[in-house]
Amino acid sequence: MNLDFSPEETAFRNEVRTFIEDNYPKNVSAEGLRDDLSPEDMVAWHKVLGEKGWSVPAWPPEYGGTGWTPTQRYIWSEENARVNAIMPLPFGVSMVGPVIYTFGNEAQKQQHLPGIRSGDVWWCQGYSEPGAGSDLASLKTTAVRDGDHYVINGQKTWTTLAQHADWGFFLCRTDPDAAKPQEGISFILVDMKSPGIEVRPIKLIDGGYEVNETWLTDVRVPVENLVGEENKGWTYAKFLLAHERSGIAGVARSKRAVEQLREIADKELLDGKPLMQDFDFARKVSQLDIDLAALEITELRTLAGEEAGRGPGPESSILKIKGTEIQQRLTELTLEAVGHYGTPYYRDLSDTGSNEYPIGPDYAQHAAASYFNMRKTSIYGGSNEIQRNIISKMILGL
Amino acid sequence: MDFNFTEEQTMVRDGLTRLVRESYDFDTRRSVIESDSGWRPELWAQIAEMGLLGMPFSEEDGGFGGGAIDSLVVMEVFGRGLVVEPYVPTVVCAGGFFKHAGSAEQKEEHIGGIVDGSRVYAFAYAEPRGRYDLADLETTAKKDGDGYVLNGHKAVVIAAPWASHLIVTARTSGERRDHDGISVFVVDKNADGVVTRDYPTVDGRRASDIYFENVSVGADALIGEDGKALPLIELVVDEAIAAQCAEACGAMKSAQEMTVEYSRQRKQFGTPIGKFQVLQHRMVDMFVEYEQSVSMAYLATLKLGESDKERKSAVSAAKVRIGQAAHHIGQEAIQIHGGMGMTDELAIGHYFKRLTIFDAEFGNVDHHMKRHIALASD
User: Fold this and answer.
1) How is residue B340 annotated by DSSP?
2) Chain A environment of B359 (Cβ under 8 Å)
3) pLDDT tens for each residue of A40-96
4) For B257-313, how does the pLDDT look when each residue is reduced to its tens digit (9 = 90+)?
5) Residue B1 domain flag
6) Pairing state of beta strands A142-146 and A123-126?
7) Which residue ranges does the record assign to the Acyl-CoA dehydrogenase/oxidase N-terminal domain (chain B) (predicted)?
8) What total number of domains does chain B contain?
């Protein structure tokens, strides 16, 4: 056993670090909240990576992937986290892209994969519905065949960043009489500019708008936008969810966030001394550090298993549960660290006159909103309750 | 032992509950907190007319002869409905200073204005570098003839945008964090040199950062004794904490009930999610946390009149226990509501936010745990 990276891996780390230092757009940082950024800012790094050929590292090389090992991909995400890089949005790169190159036809690959690689096409995901959250198979949106079109009707929800999307991938019921709820569902690509689509932003408790309700009324979609076989969409959906879950631990980001928390706690004072010197506070930060180490090694073990050809199995549920819990505690502790200045609602104040007094230190501005926002992580992508169900069923056999 | 409210307190509770239910529904609250003013002065007048603002004051001070239990009754109902109107800053904090230490003239002028609803006060005690230490003051009040000149910066002064007057803690002598040399003043918010930076708070209230730039006040602005105010400030803050503990209990009760109700309605896999045992036990824990919190709010309120040590110990115990419960219940409520809990549209997220900020006001769990430990080893 050996925890060190090989010389090749170390050389790779140096190469990507240099590349990031030289090329990461200087004015764009993920320090704040995602929907505070312009759509152009959100894809700026993606476009640079597209040109370099590094925007879809996990894809097979024939579709533009890098051929990196899982460990190299891990190093890559760590190096990006070091500079708080805004990574390519997952909807194209790690969700629909792999579905298209795995199950799509040649025409679909030609049409869609280049735009995903380059960052020119913005995708959104149409899975969840108001009645179908964790119970995704109960979805009701219908696609009815009419000549060489499907006519789609229904309502999707939590469509992340759909307000900027060019294309969406939707799960629709094509056979309402199927024997089981998972059957009779199809995976359909939809041009978001199609008539009959209405995207309504949902305001979240942090005050931002990163998700939407999407209404589809008699939306006509050419049948060639069906991926794979009709009524087999559940298979592709499950494939996609497995992809979504890998990387959900967020170790590299959380390590960076611990560093930032320490920086804040060095500046905040308690009894005239840095808060970081307070035993109670330091203990909580160390607890996070320790839990993060356990998560990191667990993730590396999973990666090593992947490299040995054992695909991410139900163990990835451990990464999801612990990763999201740590992310939540981190934002909670950061809010605690900033004390009184967690209370102001900063979101509406950014454009007030420049000659006014600022409210509190810069680092306090996103503390409360981030804490509120991060409560979503134990709910989305299969809630942590569902992850525990997976472990109990698939690993413990209960 | 008697944990019953008096007949009068029960009447107040019922009347106020009705008022909040009828004229403070969630949609109304939302439109009010988003409006320019951010609160409802007309409702404040109505509450004053019901006599609620005068309850905790003695009859000789112009009140109705009640006490802290009355504030607990009011604040519990306020918490149920997430009422933003400034009962704690005005009645409990400002009222507390005048009640305990005001001169006859101050009592007449200020308590009169509180009771009839004509004056609103904010309590400017926190500072950017002081965290939760009430004695860690950089704001100064220098003697100037008969009066004083104030300079300094107060952080996140709740309800200040609505206030006509400010209660300000400042150092009249000594070094930063000394326990001696601290004084309390009442300052007209329109006085020359008072600069305010107003903003909304994440939990739907309004606050200001306030800069005092050579603000001159007369000798009559001093409340109590020059330089000896720390025990008085601690007493008033403990009274405010007890009242806010009651508010948190009201908010936790609403959050807990809403979660149970939602779990009965929301179906997944063909079953109401409230039928899943794993969620049932978690909602039971929420309920247990709430009941423990009510007990602690009672304890804190009932001990306010005891010795300093006994009072502080009980108040800190309550703030620790309820601060923990507020986080627990708020987080569980959001989780069990699922994605809907993340939306601004549902009330539950607003309860979660109020319960989050509750912990940071007047000292968080760690701060009060330390105070509790220090008192036990005294």
Assistant:
1) G
2) 336
3) 999 999 999 999 999 999 899 999 999 998 889 889 988 998 888 999 999 999 999
4) 999 999 999 999 999 999 999 999 999 999 999 999 999 999 999 999 999 999 999
5) no
6) unpaired
7) 6-117
8) 3
Best CA proximity match to B196, nearest among B151, B149, B153, B167: B153
Tell me the C-alpha distance between B66 and B162, whole Å. 26
Q: What is the CATH number of domain A7-88?
A: 1.10.540.10
Out of B331, B360, B361, the one facing A375 most closely (by C-beta) is B331
Last residue of a domain, one of B119, B149, B168: B119
pLDDT tens digits for range B162-176: 999 999 999 999 999
- Which B residues, 112 through 141, put their C-beta within 8 Å of a C-beta on chain A? 126, 128-133, 136
- Residue type for position B203: D
Q: Indicate the residue among B119, B146, B170 that finishes a domain.
A: B119
pTM: 0.94
At residue A339, the 3 state secondary structure works out as: helix
Residue in B131, B342, B369 closest to A204 by CB: B342
A239 exposure class (CB count in 10 Å sphere: 0-12, 13-18, 19+): middle
Backbone angles phi, psi at B327, to 5 degrees: -65, -50
List the 29-88 stretch of B: residues with Cβ below 8 A of A. none
Q: Is A362 on the interface with B (CB under 8 A)?
A: no
Please state whether beta strands B147-158 and B140-144 pair in parallel, antiparallel, or not at all (unpaired): antiparallel
Q: How far is CA A79 from CA A73, A84, B309, in A?
A: 10, 9, 53
Domain A123-231 has CATH 3.40.50.300: no
* Per-residue pLDDT tens over the stretch A303-347: 888 778 776 678 889 999 999 999 999 999 999 999 999 999 988
Chain A residues touching residue B343 (CB < 8 angstroms): 202-205
Residues of A designated catalytic: 244
User: 């009149």: which residue's tokens?
Assistant: B305
Exposure string for B99-116, b = 16+ CB within 10 A, e = fewer: bebbeeebbeebbbbbbe
Which residues of chain B lie closer than 8 angstroms to A207, CB-CB?
202, 344
